[in-house]
DNA sequence: GCCGTCTGCTTAACCGGTTCAGTTTCTGTG
DNA sequence: CACAGAAACTGAACCGGTTAAGCAGACGGC
């Protein structure tokens, strides 16, 4: 068991190299103050010993960074597993972090109180250098809190409502227009959107874009109903909508999970897809391609989204200026779940 | 912006209370050495100032803990989002960690090399106090590595192959027997299992249990084929199986994602479920309940699994003895995807 | 009245890095 | 040859905690 061996420190390296620990620090950090020859010798010894800097020790120095960022995901755990969005986001974030040996702290909470508590604690205990916040809400309590904390942050969403914090957002209006016009071109007149929670800023933006596009396309009967992203809500909402006498002929869901739930309800109620009902999912995923009929979906590059967010946060942590950014827009991928009525 | 305010330290508290910082430390940690009255005064001041211990500083002291554990998930990111297993596991782990103000570092990697590198780095840089390892493999290189590192660990899987590391495992044989006998009772004779990767220990254990149960039930034709948990593999494998002349009448999938993929293929090929083919998924999820027909599944309490794993790791970190444990077994939840042939 | 012990606290070292202020040595210049 | 200036390195302070050792004063016992 090598398990008991003491981890080497820069003092060990200093002894081995016959120099002071200050010199070792300069050498290892590529700063001036040591000759090239000494630097090489020190680096060789460090590598020999398998030395790596203690992150707590580094963090303790004035101006030191712990080398970790935090992400809180505030959604019910049982629905979360199904949303590829988060895992892809995490994957993108880590791609960026990996290049600088940074780590990700993940917390899954069930309410906003626990989320704000997490930011407070992380900041006070110096566990992270910064945080990425998702699911921006209208009058989001997190914004004021984090603005008042010594905690760099990047907001996914906005730019309205992000306060003074840098943010990264998608303009969904173009994709929304594409979807609505596509459905209108297929002959649909009664298009209903099963949206995410109303308190999310991006839900509102999409709602406005949806109404806008519908008006443009001359659809007076388009409207949105709100659900909470869970499969259960998707099931309930769809059942209610399909039971109406003026049943919609096309449904646009704000996430893939609700769309799949909607597909199940349609089958249950004997409503043919796409012959009697067209279905579109926002945010594509393996899931959309696996179910039958496969779901027409709007895909975004979420991995890049995460990578960019992490890069922005890195800049903010280093004290570099950070500008709000817009990411690539979603694109429509028509599949088997959409078509003209009766086809 | 209070953002610029210096975070209070124990020295600030000591000054305010008119005592030494040592006394403050004793008071805050509930150790003897200060009078009850002084302790109360110090606690009040600390709470007033909004003080919280700097985790890097704590970690730096001899024997200090950083208060974080690590989890590496080594699966392709795009399939991962769909597996409720991991999010539920994370959720369970965090439930346990929350009680002691500990955090979770999550890393999503695409290969074993990156995973072992993560353990090395985390240990060398003292970023975590311990790790939880999932998806134990046959001759797993992680075991030897971690055994040789000063890094407490708990293995999910085993107990064979976990080396000297404490492990937490499920005995799937009971549930497997239940599934096979249930299908046999429905009249199925050609049952095929679409298994996870062969190199996973738990896959092998299930394979053995499956063969055992099939023999018991007098099914000579039962066998397993291996896939990699992705929807694509599920699709491909199922297509191949359903194209055979001696087509199986029941399929048992090792995860929900492949089962859903299989259902899609059956529809595509005009094979009725459950009239011509029964489908069972291992590990239940929202997904199984959302698709039509809903999938018969084996459910385990994964949240508890995670919680227990975190508790075991906590013991290991504190140096308390840790015994291998078996968790609750899975249970079969029959739904619409299974039935007698031709029904 | 002296000693031993306990309580309640202080002092100082330590963890493993970073960094600033010096000190020594080397080099080039007038 | 004296001297400036840079290069290479040392020593020590510092970050924010924990903890061992030391010490003053109170108290009790004989």
Describe what you observe in this structure.
The structure is a homodimer of 343-residue chains. Chain A is of the alpha/beta class and 343 residues long. Chain A has three domains: 2-53, 434 Repressor (Amino-terminal Domain) (Orthogonal Bundle), CATH 1.10.260.40; 68-170 and 302-326, 3-Layer(aba) Sandwich (Rossmann fold), CATH 3.40.50; 173-299, Response regulator (Rossmann fold). Helix content of chain A is 44%, strand content 15%. The first copy, chain A, contains 14 helices and twelve strands. Chain A has helices spanning 10-17, 21-28, 36-49, 55-60, 77-80, 84-98, 112-124, 141-147, 173-185, 201-216, 231-243, 256-268, 286-290, 302-318; strands spanning 68-74, 103-109, 130-133, 153-156, 167-169, 191-195, 223-226, 250-253, 278-282, 296-299, 325-326, 331-333. In chain A, the strands form two sheets. In chain A, strands 2-1-3-4-5-11 form a six-stranded parallel sheet, with helices on both faces. In chain A, strands 7-6-8-9-10-12 form a six-stranded mixed sheet, with helices on both faces. In chain A, helix 1 crosses helix 2 (21-28), helix 9 (173-185) crosses helix 10 (201-216) and helix 11 packs across helix 12 (256-268). The longest helix of chain A has 17 residues, at 302-318. The radius of gyration of chain A is 25 Å and the shape is elongated. Chains A and B meet through helix 4, helix 5, helix 6, strand 2 and helix 11 of A and helix 4, helix 5, helix 6, strand 2 and helix 7 of B. Chain A binds a DNA duplex (30 and 30 nucleotides) through helix 2 and helix 4.
